[in-house]
């Protein structure tokens, strides 16, 4: 994964922040424009010391998967599957980060997790190539079946017509 997170400038109020930045580079063909991301800062349930109930250090990063022009359709579909419960009914992916005490580290953590998720969705799954079983494996399977059948036949009660 070669996701790079550029330095960005914050613009906006205390809890609602817009990002002024160029791009979030996921791979050579996928770049997310910063205007497609929205961040909201909330009080963190994690570590924070004396400031834990005073400062909004946790980050809610939102990314609209359905309306993003930056994602190819196949990546978008795989991202919807990988997102699971993090994607709401409107197709918006929400990542919460509250692992660290500072807003900046949580923000970088949320962006790194978004980049990792998109990079994972960008990898095409390998298609399975159907192969035939070898003659030896077929023979082994049939021999096992014959032995099993024979042992079960020996357990039966003797029949009258023998």
Automatic annotation (TrEMBL):
Q: Which GO terms describe its molecular function?
A: peptidyl-tRNA hydrolase activity; ribosome binding; translation release factor activity
- In which residue ranges is the amino acid composition biased (Basic residues)? 147-156
Where do the record's region annotations for Disordered lie?
A: 125-162
Q: Give all residue intervals belonging to the Prokaryotic-type class I peptide chain release factors domain.
A: 43-59
Q: Which Pfam families match?
A: RF-1
List the GO biological process terms: rescue of stalled ribosome
InterPro entries for this protein:
Pep_chain_release_fac_I
Which residues lie in Basic and acidic residues bias regions? 137-146
**NCBIfam families referenced in this protein's UniProt entry, alphabetically:** PRK09256.1
How is this protein named in the record?
Answer: Class I peptide chain release factor
């Amino acid at each position: 994964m070669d996701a790079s997170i550029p330095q960005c400038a914050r613009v906006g109020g205390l809890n609602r922040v817009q990002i002024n930045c160029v791009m979030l580079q996921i791979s050579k063909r996928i770049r997310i424009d910063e205007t497609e991301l929205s961040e909201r800062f909330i009080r963190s349930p994690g570590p924070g010391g004396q400031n834990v109930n005073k400062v909004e250090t946790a980050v809610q990063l939102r990314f609209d998967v359905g309306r993003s022009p930056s994602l190819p359709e196949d990546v978008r579909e795989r991202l919807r599957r990988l997102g699971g419960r993090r994607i709401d009914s409107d197709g918006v992916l929400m990542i919460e980060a509250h692992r660290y005490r500072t807003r900046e580290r949580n923000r970088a953590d949320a962006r790194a997790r978004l980049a990792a998720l998109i990079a994972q969705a960008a990898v095409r799954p390998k298609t399975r190539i159907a192969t035939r079983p070898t003659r030896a494996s077929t023979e082994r399977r049939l021999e096992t079946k014959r032995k099993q059948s024979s042992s079960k036949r020996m357990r039966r009660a003797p029949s009258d017509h023998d």
